[in-house]
Amino acid sequence: MPSKSYQRIRSDHASEVAEDYVEAIADAISERGVCRAMDLVKHFAVTHATVNNTIARLQRDGLVVTEPYQPIDLTAAGRRLATQSRKRHEVVESFLKAMGVSAATAATDSEGIEHHVSKETLNAMKRVLADGWPSNP
């Protein structure tokens, strides 16, 4: 039987693509007013088929709505997930920078960490950002 930590990691991996896509869709809509499949092809450097398959899964899961050859939009659930993911990303990136990690490295590292950080760790990061480093951890 898999350990609890292994099960959590598998669950995190399963939601990672969905979180990345809804964040990218929200960003495209915010920047350009619309998100098209080609925007995601360029953003993720993947094939059109990969984007289409992923969008179909996100649509099945109730996170996006679209029609063939039409823009991609987020549902209310997709917008909530994008907002949660963006906030988690910002906390992790800010925390890494506060530790002295360069902006470029913090941006890259936070992309992976954001999907696997527990609520407990994220809350600890928020406390450090708000209150400073504890004198005696």
TrEMBL record:
Domain HTH dtxR-type: 14-75
SMART domains, per database record: HTH_DTXR
Family: Belongs to the DtxR/MntR family.
Family annotation (Pfam families): Fe_dep_repr_C, Fe_dep_repress
Domain of life: Bacteria
Assembly description: Homodimer.
Compartment list: Cytoplasm
UniProt xrefs under PROSITE patterns: HTH_DTXR
Naturally occurring in which organism (per UniProt): Aporhodopirellula aestuarii
Main location: cytoplasm
Job description of the protein: In the presence of manganese, represses expression of mntH and mntS. Up-regulates expression of mntP.
Keywords from the named record: Activator, Cytoplasm, DNA-binding, Manganese, Repressor, Transcription, Transcription regulation
Gene that this polypeptide is encoded by: mntR
InterPro entries for this protein: DtxR_MntR_Metal-Reg (IPR050536), Fe_dep_repressor (IPR001367), Fe_dep_repressor_sf (IPR036421), HTH_DTXR (IPR022687), Iron_dep_repressor (IPR022689), WH-like_DNA-bd_sf (IPR036388), WH_DNA-bd_sf (IPR036390)
Protein name: Transcriptional regulator MntR
SUPFAM superfamilies per record: Iron-dependent repressor protein, dimerization domain, Winged helix' DNA-binding domain
